[in-house]
Write a structure and sequence with these properties.
single chain, mainly beta
Length: about 150
């Protein structure tokens, strides 16, 4: 009988997974000007490798939300478009968590997220002004006193 109770004891004692802090940055890119927000310089260079016509990049909104593992949150973007983010798996041994995102006009994307790194997605959505919607998603699964990684955006 004690063998049957062991799995139940683990379920009772096992701590719940900490929520994951997800940050979404809404970016609009245009061919109408060459103004690039300094925080987006590295992103702009990468996007321009695929689409040289996009020359201006600006941040329109940023939102952060703590999402429990297994749950989802829908972020409002521009023009009533939305981005659904699901925290699929908790942090693994290498410090990555698994997210599934559903950007507008794109199929679900599931990926392992590195700590403090944004994952950008250029969507097919264009605003009335002809700007291209780009979403960048970051999760902070890390805890401890490690310094934040230096990358594009911040």
């Amino acid at each position: 009988m004690t063998g049957a109770l062991a799995p139940l004891l683990f379920l009772i004692v096992a701590p719940p997974e900490d929520p994951v802090r997800v940050t979404v940055v809404v970016i609009l890119a245009t061919d109408a000007n060459a103004d690039v927000d300094p925080k987006l310089a590295a992103l702009a260079a990468q996007v321009q490798k695929r689409d040289k016509t996009l020359t201006g990049f600006r941040i329109t909104a940023t939102e952060a939300k703590s999402i429990p593992v297994g749950d989802s949150h829908t972020f409002d973007l521009v023009d009533k478009e939305q981005l659904k983010v699901t925290v699929t798996r908790p942090k693994d041994a290498s410090g990555r968590i698994c997210l599934t995102i559903k950007p507008p006009g794109v199929d679900n994307v599931t990926y392992g997220c590195a700590c403090d790194k944004f994952f950008p997605v250029v969507t097919p959505h264009r605003t009335k002004a002809g700007e291209v919607l780009i979403v960048a998603v970051m999760a902070k699964p890390c805890t401890g006193n490690k310094p934040a990684a230096k990358g594009w955006l911040w």
